[in-house]
Amino acid sequence: MKKIKEKIESLKLSFKKEILTIFIIDIFLLIIGIVSYLFLKQIIFLAFTFFAFVLFSYFYLSRYDDLLKKREIEAQDEFVSLLPFLKTFLQNGFSIYQAFGELKNFASEYLSLRLTRLINNIDIDKSIKPYLDFAHEFKSLQIEQLLVCLYQMVDEGNKDIYLVQYELLFNKMRDEASKNLVEKKRNMMDSLSIFPLIASALLIVMITFGVMNIVGESINGI
Q1: Which of 99, 147, 180, 198 could make an SS bond with 89 (beta carbons 3.0 to 4.6 A apart)?
Q2: What is the distance between the alpha carbons of residues 170 and 32, in angstroms, rounded to a whole number?
Q3: 145-191, pLDDT tens digit by residue?
Q4: Residue 127 φ/ψ, nearest 5 degrees
Q5: Whose CA is closest to 145, among 195, 83, 89?
Q6: Nearest to 154 by CA among 214, 95, 83
Q7: What is the pTM for the complete model shown?
Q8: What's the CA gap between 103 and 23, in Å, rounded?
Q9: 206: Cβ–Cβ under 8 A, 6 or more apart, which residues?
Q10: Residue 86 in contact with residue 103, Cβ under 8 Å?
Q11: Where does residue 42 fall: left (phi above 0), alpha (psi -120 to 50 degrees), or beta otherwise?
């Protein structure tokens, strides 16, 4: 539960509200199952309620991992989309420190916090470490290479040479972002295809319990 709470809070969601939502919906499903059983005297409704209860809880709780992954992908895509602005700032004579400071004004709140942390770390530590720490948050080799390039630009001062390397790395990342978008759409289509399978499985379970219930009533009648 502690890990789930950390994930919820990292997404800027209310832990109490999320747990309350799950509790209310689960109670609602339970009431539907009990009322259906009392009126129709069919155990299949209790079984269906149980499976609905389990499936809802599982998918609702597992969505936090998906939301975190989605946020990281969006942050990486956003950072790549802002790189042309960063290049423009550097070409206009801004230092790396100043360029990142201007860049965060165009970023979302989540990415802006990362950029602010990078700027503060650069102010304290003049080594390559702040650049690598920032790059590792994205888990992208191209972004790591680009941040190393930016550090070398500061450390060695050959801005024109490293701007060419910067442009090459940016083109690679742009191509990677396009591939990720295609993969994202493919995964979305694959995830949608699982719902008919779930519906079929539930239907089979309902039919099985229905048949068992009919057979049981027939035997009791004999």
Answers
A1: 99
A2: 55
A3: 888 888 888 777 666 666 777 777 777 777 776 676 666 666 666 55
A4: -85, -175
A5: 83
A6: 95
A7: 0.66
A8: 43
A9: 44, 47, 48
A10: yes
A11: beta
